[in-house]
RNA sequence: GGGGCCGUAGCUCAAUUGGUUAGAGUACCGGACUGUCGAUCCGGGGGUUGCGGGUUCAAGUCCCGUCGGCCUCGCCA
């Protein structure tokens, strides 16, 4: 875990308790000669028949304890009686003990450079077993991790692993940096309700039945969106909250049913004010948590440019490998797949994998073809760039369909050199982008085109206000219905809705959507126009969001906000690709807690009180 | 809702085309050993091969179903 400072390097004097004088990560040569008491878990025992070594572990580190049966004779003051020695011989992994002894410098050649406490050891004289452990299903200290199912069931054992403890510490410190930062900038942390009202659109709600209102339900918040806007109407001016959010949708490696947002809203601001505020927060994350300066302002891309260059609205910009369009060349060539696609309005785009021609066999390329198939691409055209008789040309079974001039055009368009591998997808633009964006991420990783420790954060601006739902034949809000319209595009609301840009912004980092927000509508006329566009009549809007619309009539300041995914930020900063590892008690892909068994059945009486009757699902 | 991978000792894994008594490391138990830090050495116990069904002379292995975990498409304003 990176970081300029951590708890273990701070003064730990305050960690002394009535049971211990120091922690297991604390003792150094300067403590030699002192009598100390440590508490912790037995990480390892090495019994030599006579002398017994115990590695004692707590959150702060590992200290070697020595139980020497001859100590009483050899070293005055370190007396170890036979009963204590025998007790030490019976210690096993994960026993919780309290040990008193004297700090000794380790002898010549006995220093363990792998331990921060490796220059010393404690010669134990007293031992109390505070809690004898049964044999654990896995060892928190083992190199090899057990399956995740087991780790989740015995989460308390998993949490003892130093790696997980470091992540919990990082998460704590990220929260602390966040609170300090917003406090310094005049923000108030305000709590909003967990039991709220269901406001359709968006994700599926988690519902809570009401006992006193038969047949009615609260909904857990998908985000505090409406409350924070109302706080602005309420004159809070600057609000933030580390808010728990709930969404009953299918999970992914970066999605949990309950997660935390760093939620922000500001009054009397425009887009730049929010972006500047968050730039500062990200810089604080980098300096305080990684010990690395980051240059501000963060880079910005428009949504259109992000799609054009990376095929994605959340590009990983730690590496290049940008997408290039060769539709014009494809239209003119003799390769049927290419010219038919362009003739029917499709695009041909591709990327140049540097020095990769020799790294991917035919079988590997078949694998890449299958990979892009996951996003609907029906094929992947590939060419190796070679130099032959002084000419740089394409080599592939399909190369014969391209004239020498076309080959040169393609090579120049992708800035390719001999040894590079060119990969193209021909399809409708959405498929081309999805396939190539995912291929780009895969190649970036496989070809090690970036430093995994780098933090590449950028803003993606000017998302479309609405997207077309082809199935239901209507426009849908891309962000949410309260998102302001780009000032230059207001007149297009009726004439060309798909081209209307929103006053919205996403913060993308290392390929993850790490924050999302917008300037809000505070003009009732524009709000009505947006509702009209997404097919929501006044009555329906009133029923769903009436309380917000009412609030906006009573003096609403121009306001804007954003929310950062706290779990995702911890994941990114810790260089992990799994959100469960940054949550103390995460849920499985089926939203179950393997430790507690949640969700579980309840008493019939509880259901009765809640006026609930369950129906078994059809087979 | 769809697709894919996985499930064998407490744990991590192995087991030829379907073929004898399902093995190894580690953990655990017993013994030996006075400076280890992956301690070492000797010995031992430990299995409903997730569960149910089917094919077969014979199933850990093949087929169907089911449960669980992971990845993913849809979904996630």
From TrEMBL:
CDD domains: AspRS_core (cd00777), EcAspRS_like_N (cd04317)
Subunit architecture: Homodimer.
InterPro entries in the cross-refs: Aa-tRNA-synt_II, aa-tRNA-synth_II, aa-tRNA-synth_II/BPL/LPL, Asp-tRNA-ligase_1, Asp-tRNA-ligase_1_N, Asp/Asn-tRNA-synth_IIb, AspRS_core, GAD-like_sf
Reactions catalysed according to its record: tRNA(Asx) + L-aspartate + ATP = L-aspartyl-tRNA(Asx) + AMP + diphosphate
Subcellular localization: Cytoplasm
GO molecular function, one term: aspartate-tRNA ligase activity
Organism expressing this protein natively: Alienimonas chondri
Binding locations of ATP: 247-249, 256, 513, 565-568
Site (Important for tRNA non-discrimination): 48, 109
Region (Aspartate): 225-228
Pfam families, A to Z: GAD (PF02938), tRNA-synt_2 (PF00152), tRNA_anti-codon (PF01336)
Domain of life: Bacteria
EC number(s) recorded for this UniProt protein: 6.1.1.23
The encoding gene: aspS
Keyword Aminoacyl-tRNA synthetase recorded: yes
Main location: cytoplasm
Entry's family note: Belongs to the class-II aminoacyl-tRNA synthetase family. Type 1 subfamily.
Residues the record lists as binding L-aspartate: 201, 247, 479, 520
Family matches, as PROSITE patterns: AA_TRNA_LIGASE_II
Gene3D superfamilies xrefs: Bira Bifunctional Protein, Domain 2, GAD-like domain, Nucleic acid-binding proteins
Region annotated Disordered, chain positions: 1-22
Function: Aspartyl-tRNA synthetase with relaxed tRNA specificity since it is able to aspartylate not only its cognate tRNA(Asp) but also tRNA(Asn). Reaction proceeds in two steps: L-aspartate is first activated by ATP to form Asp-AMP and then transferred to the acceptor end of tRNA(Asp/Asn).
Composition bias, Low complexity: 1-21
Name recorded for this polypeptide: Aspartate--tRNA(Asp/Asn) ligase
All copies of domain Aminoacyl-transfer RNA synthetases class-II family profile, residue ranges: 168-599
Keyword terms: Aminoacyl-tRNA synthetase, ATP-binding, Cytoplasm, Ligase, Nucleotide-binding, Protein biosynthesis
């Amino acid at each position: 875990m990176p970081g300029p400072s951590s708890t273990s390097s701070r003064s730990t004097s305050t960690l002394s308790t009535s049971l211990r004088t120091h922690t297991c990560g604390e003792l150094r040569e300067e403590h030699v000669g002192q009598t100390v008491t440590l508490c912790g878990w037995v990480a390892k025992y090495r019994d030599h028949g006579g002398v017994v070594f115990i590695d004692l572990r707590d959150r702060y580190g590992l200290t070697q304890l020595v139980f020497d049966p001859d100590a009483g004779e050899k070293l005055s003051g370190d007396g170890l009686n036979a009963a204590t020695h025998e007790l030490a011989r019976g210690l096993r992994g994960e026993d919780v003990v309290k040990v008193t002894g004297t700090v000794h410098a380790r002898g010549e050649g006995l220093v363990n450079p792998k331990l921060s406490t490796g220059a010393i050891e404690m010669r134990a004289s007293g031992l109390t077993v505070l809690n004898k452990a049964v044999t654990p299903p896995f060892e928190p200290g083992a190199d090899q991790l057990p399956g995740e199912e087991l780790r989740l069931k015995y989460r308390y054992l998993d949490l003892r692993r130093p790696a997980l403890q470091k992540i919990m510490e990082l998460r704590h410190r990220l929260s602390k940096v966040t609170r300090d930062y917003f406090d310094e900038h005049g923000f108030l942390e305000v709590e909003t309700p967990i039991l709220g009202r269901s406001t359709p659109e968006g994700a599926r709600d988690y519902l809570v039945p009401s006992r006193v209102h038969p047949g009615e339900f609260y909904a857990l918040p998908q985000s505090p969106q409406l409350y924070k806007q109302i706080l602005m109407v309420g004159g809070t001016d600057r609000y933030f909250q580390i808010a728990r959010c709930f969404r009953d949708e299918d999970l992914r490696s970066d999605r949990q049913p309950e997660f935390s947002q760093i939620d922000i809203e500001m009054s009397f601001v425009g887009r730049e004010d929010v972006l500047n505020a968050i730039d500062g927060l990200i810089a604080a994350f980098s300096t305080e948590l990684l010990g690395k300066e980051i240059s501000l302002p963060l880079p910005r891309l428009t949504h259109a440019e992000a799609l054009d260059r990376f095929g994605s609205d959340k590009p990983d910009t730690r590496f290049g490998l940008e997408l290039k369009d060769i539709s014009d060349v494809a239209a003119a060539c003799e390769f049927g797949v290419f010219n038919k696609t362009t003739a029917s309005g499709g695009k041909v785009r591709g990327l140049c994998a540097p020095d990769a021609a020799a790294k991917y066999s035919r079988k590997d390329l078949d694998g890449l073809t299958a990979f892009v198939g996951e996003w609907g691409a029906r094929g992947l055209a590939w060419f190796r760039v070679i130099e032959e008789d002084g000419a740089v040309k394409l080599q592939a079974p399909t190369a014969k369909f391209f004239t020498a001039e076309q080959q040169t055009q393609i090579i120049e368009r992708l800035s390719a050199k001999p040894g590079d591998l060119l990969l193209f997808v021909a399809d409708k633009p959405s498929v081309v982008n999805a396939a190539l964006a995912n291929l780009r991420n895969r190649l970036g990783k496989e070809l090690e085109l970036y430093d995994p420790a780098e933090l590449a954060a950028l803003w993606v601006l000017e998302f479309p206000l609405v997207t077309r739902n082809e199935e239901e034949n209507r426009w849908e809000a891309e962000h949410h219905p309260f998102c302001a319209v780009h000032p230059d595009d207001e007149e297009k609301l009726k004439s060309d809705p798909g081209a209307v840009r929103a006053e919205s912004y996403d913060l993308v980092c290392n390929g993850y959507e790490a924050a999302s927000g917008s300037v809000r509508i505070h003009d009732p006329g524009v709000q009505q126009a947006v509702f009209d566009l997404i097919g929501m009549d006044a009555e329906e809007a009133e029923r769903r969001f009436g309380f917000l619309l009412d609030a906006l009539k009573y003096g609403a300041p121009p306001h804007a906000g954003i929310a950062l995914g706290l779990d995702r930020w911890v994941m990114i900063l810790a260089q992990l690709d799994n959100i469960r590892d940054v949550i103390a008690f995460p849920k499985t892909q089926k939203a179950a807690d393997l430790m507690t068994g949640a969700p579980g059945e309840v008493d019939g009486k509880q259901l009765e009180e809640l006026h609930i009757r369950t129906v078994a699902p059809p087979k």
